[in-house]
Write a structure and sequence with these properties.
40% of the residues lie in helices and 32% in strands. The chain has 218 residues and is of the alpha+beta class.
C-alpha cells in the first residue's frame, strides 16, 4: 500500500465534508427563500385591505398658509347720517397655520378580480386646520381715544381667515394632491405586503354635499 494513501483519504474526506457543507447551506437558503415566498403568497389582498382601513383616516396632503390682512370697523353714525368722530377702529392681523387633507378609510370599498384590486374611496376632505398661535395675532392696532377694537371683531376676523385659508388651499390644488398621494400610499402598502403581483386600481365617488368637518387644532 502506498504511503500516500492515508493522505489521499484525508483529502477526499475534507473535500466531501466541504461539498456537504456547501450543499447543506444551499438547502437551508433555498428552504428559507421558499418559506418566505410561501408566507407572502398566503397573505390575501382582502386581509391587507382590512389592515389598511383599520387606520380609519389617511392624511395624504398638507399645506401651510400665512394670511395677513386688515380689518376696519367704520365709524358709528349719528341718526344714520353723520359719522361720529373718533369711533372708527382698524387692525392688521396675521393668521398662520397648517391644513391637512386626506381620505376616510372607513368608507372605502374593496373588490378583486384575479390579479386586479379595485379600491373605491370617498373624495378627500380637510381633516384639520391647525393655527400656529405663536405666529398668529394682531400685529398693528389703530385705535382712538373713544373706541377700542372689540374682541368679537378679532374672533370674526379669525373665522374669515380660516374660511379664506381653506378655500385658497382647495383652489390651489390641495385636494388633487391628496387624491394622488392617497392612491400612491395605498398602492405602496399593498405592494409591501403582496409584492408587485397585483394591479391596484382606484375609483373616486362623487363628492357628497356634506363632508366630514375639519378639526381645528388637530
Amino acid at each position: 500500500m502506498s504511503a500516500r494513501t492515508p493522505i489521499k483519504r484525508i483529502q477526499y474526506a475534507l473535500i466531501g465534508l466541504l461539498v456537504g457543507l456547501v450543499v447543506g447551506i444551499g438547502g437551508v437558503l433555498i428552504f428559507q427563500s421558499a418559506s418566505s415566498s410561501g408566507s407572502a403568497s398566503n397573505v390575501q389582498p382582502s386581509v391587507v385591505f382590512d389592515r389598511i382601513v383599520a387606520k380609519n383616516e389617511l392624511v395624504s396632503a398638507s399645506q401651510q398658509y400665512n394670511i395677513t390682512d386688515k380689518s376696519t370697523k367704520p365709524a358709528e353714525k349719528l341718526f344714520d347720517m353723520f359719522d361720529i368722530p373718533f369711533t372708527d377702529t382698524s387692525f392688521w392681523y396675521r393668521y398662520v397655520g397648517t391644513i391637512k387633507a386626506g381620505v376616510d378609510l372607513e368608507a372605502a370599498d374593496f373588490s378583486q378580480e384575479g390579479d386586479v384590486i379595485r379600491i373605491v374611496l370617498d373624495q378627500p376632505y380637510i381633516i384639520s386646520n391647525a393655527p400656529d398661535m405663536d405666529a398668529s395675532g394682531v400685529i398693528e392696532e389703530n385705535n382712538n381715544l373713544f373706541a377700542k377694537i372689540p374682541l368679537e371683531e378679532v374672533d370674526k376676523f379669525q373665522r374669515q381667515c380660516i374660511e379664506k385659508s381653506e378655500s385658497g388651499a382647495i383652489e390651489g390644488g390641495l385636494m388633487d394632491e391628496a387624491r394622488t398621494n392617497a392612491e400612491q400610499d395605498i398602492r405602496d402598502m399593498f405592494n409591501a405586503a403582496l409584492g408587485s403581483a397585483y394591479d391596484v386600481q382606484f375609483e373616486w365617488r362623487e363628492a357628497s354635499e356634506e363632508a366630514p368637518e375639519a378639526s381645528e387644532g388637530q
